[in-house]
Design brief:
The complex is a heterodimer of chains A (284) and B (308). With 284 residues, chain A is mainly α. Chain A has eleven helices and no strands. In chain A, helix 2 packs across helix 11, helix 3 packs across helix 10 and helix 9 runs antiparallel to helix 11. The mean pLDDT of chain A is 80. The model of chain B has no long low-confidence stretch (mean pLDDT 86). The chains are: A mainly alpha (284), B mainly alpha (308).
Chain lengths: 284, 308
């Protein structure tokens, strides 16, 4: 099992990393804002206020971030949209962690021919622009929010599987695994009881770095019109709308664009901080 | 070495075949078809259309016909762009996308490596931190935020460059899209170069060279650069993939008439042949990049060259 010293060391190293701490704080504030923000505003995310169309921020008392071309409140839409982006980030990351850890640990533990074939499969997949597959999946299964999570997660597991395999290969050589084999433990038991608990560190680090990638990918898809659908918004759809309107209404671009930027920056800095605190998870 | 490379080259054929097959059947599984309009066509007309495109045949026949066509370099007619073959559509847009992607790749490498080296030489100084902070920002901020922002500042406020659009032979329309497309891989390459350069510069043979009094530039050029570039070479294929997917949004924002738009449009319109053509082109480019990376590895690392 995990040595308590390892974790308290990691905590101490993280606590002296000022950039990572600030990023974590900002990220927490942003998450709370997406949870609380929409409900403190008097407006709804899909309400069309025809009296206040394309209002700049501050022009009207109740629309703090202004409104879009249809008179919808941008304050509520930005925070509700960010909530959708965050939810997709978390769920899709969970999918890719689940699949990647299972696949990678099986590869690493079984080794030999099975490992070779399974890794060759990953190599082929990661040589492709995975955007194809997600575009195909969204086209085939319709633009269903749940499938969007799953398909983004399903393409994100490749790197996770590689990292986990590398770690498993080195853990497999340790004496306690030999002891477990000698005492008659079966493969599933060794995998779940002895190998997986030792993978938690690198998995946490890489998962933290996966969340911003997934959010970015979802925004990318939504920007292309393949992700979240009207009247719902995510940061990607808001940026797409803003980019189309920027000549007359720059705030429609700058607010969601800025929000996405700050969110991704925080997550990346926190992830880098965790990596420095816990240790390198194999691939950079 | 030649044998190794030849085997990788041979691998490319089945890989491409598997990709084509998977894409062919996946896109056919999608509900709807290329002839679905707002108003349903009369059955007789729809039947004739399907017959004209060979879609009345069983799917296996269509599949083998398609494969045969691809092997002869014929990607078939587009379903939506009437009067155009897929080869014509891709042939028109490809030079634009290639220009965009090639400039971005060259810039990302040509600037990323020196910047990363610079940061490594000034490790843990203010200059290093500045480069690394900029690199994190560059990696983080996506092209579809950077490009509209640049267009807003340089196109609308300062009026230095066109906001969007394209004219044949005019370089000005490429400037902002290229910047937006280059920044993320550039930042990543800078970070990668920095960390591998720091590692290489700390190794004993570099210390020996320093002790002999070899000047710094000679150490960098003759001893440090090649080994430090190995991880960068490994990132080349993902970088090109990222630039290709990035060009999907960059082309759509900037209005450059490349091939990026055909992928999403083609999939949404069920323009089967067009999507397949895009899959073949993109996969071929990526597989070629993979082979190039193998060659680069062999050139950079003698251990790989002499092993096999």
């Amino acid at each position: 099992m995990i040595d308590a010293g390892l974790w308290s060391d990691a905590r101490r190293r993280f606590a002296v990393n000022r950039a990572a701490l600030i990023a974590l704080l900002v990220f927490t504030v942003l998450v709370l804002a997406t949870l609380i923000g929409p409900s403190i505003s008097p407006n709804e995310f899909d309400h069309l206020d025809w009296g206040h169309v394309a209002m700049p921020p501050g022009a009207d008392q109740s629309h703090w971030f202004g409104t879009d071309r249809l008179g919808r409140d941008l304050f509520v839409r930005t925070f509700a949209g960010a909530r959708v982006s965050l939810a997709i980030g978390l769920i899709a990351t969970a999918v890719s962690v689940g699949v990647g850890v299972l696949y990678g640990s099986i590869c690493g533990y079984l080794g030999g021919r099975v490992d070779q074939i399974m890794m060759r499969f990953i190599e082929v997949l990661s040589g492709l622009p995975l955007i194809f597959f997600v575009i195909f999946l969204t086209v085939i299964f319709g633009r269903n929010l749940f499938l969007l999570f799953a398909s983004i997660g399903a393409v994100g597991w490749l790197t996770m599987a590689r990292i986990v395999r590398g770690q498993t290969l080195s853990i497999r050589q340790k004496e306690f695994i030999e002891a477990a084999v000698a005492s008659g433990a079966g493969t599933p038991r060794i995998l779940f009881k002895h190998i997986l608990p030792n993978l938690i560190g690198p998995v946490i680090v890489y998962a933290t770095l996966t969340i911003p990638q997934v959010i970015l990918f979802e925004s990318f898809l939504s920007f292309l019109g393949l992700g979240v659908q009207e009247p719902r918004a995510s940061l990607g759809t808001l940026i797409a709308e803003g980019a189309a309107e920027m000549e007359s209404a720059a705030w429609m671009l700058l607010i969601p664009g800025g929000f996405l930027t700050v969110l991704l920056l925080c997550l990346n800095v926190v992830g880098d901080g965790l990596r420095d605190a816990i240790g390198e998870p194999g691939a950079a | 070495m030649i044998r190794y490379f030849a085997s990788r080259l041979l691998w490319a054929v089945p890989t491409l075949f598997v990709i084509i097959t998977a894409a062919f059947f996946l896109i056919r599984m999608a509900p709807g078809g290329p002839f679905d309009e707002e108003q349903a066509l009369p059955p007789a007309i729809k039947h004739n259309l399907e017959a004209a495109y060979g879609m009345d045949q069983p799917i296996w026949v269509q599949y083998s016909r398609y494969l045969k066509g691809v092997m002869h370099g014929d990607f078939g007619p587009s379903f939506k762009y009437k009067d155009f073959t897929v080869s014509e559509l891709i042939g028109q847009g490809f030079p634009v996308s290639l220009t965009l992607g090639a400039i971005a790749t060259v810039l990302a490498l040509g600037l990323g490596v020196p910047i990363g080296t610079y940061a490594a030489l000034h490790q843990n100084t203010a200059r290093d931190y500045l480069v690394m902070v900029l690199a994190v920002a560059g990696i983080t901020i996506p092209a579809f935020v950077v490009l509209p922002f640049l267009a807003l500042v340089f196109g609308i406020y300062l009026k230095w460059l066109p906001v969007a659009g394209w004219e044949p032979g005019s370089a000005r329309y490429y400037v902002l899209p290229v910047i937006a497309l280059t920044l993320p891989p550039l930042a990543f390459i800078a970070r990668l170069t920095r960390s591998s350069m720091i590692e290489v510069l700390g190794s004993p043979y570099i210390r020996t060279a320093k002790a002999k009094g070899v000047p710094l530039t000679a150490i960098l050029w003759r001893h440090a650069l090649r080994p430090a570039l190995i991880p960068v070479a490994g990132f080349l294929a993902p970088a090109v993939a990222a630039i290709m997917t990035g060009s999907l949004v960059v082309e759509s924002i900037s209005g450059l008439p490349g091939i990026g738009r055909y992928l999403v449009q083609g999939a949404l319109n069920r323009d089967y042949t067009l999507v397949m053509g895009m899959v073949v082109v993109y996969s071929a480019v990526l597989i070629a990049m993979g082979l190039l990376v193998d060659l680069l590895y062999a050139w950079l690392d003698p251990r790989i060259r002499f092993q096999s």
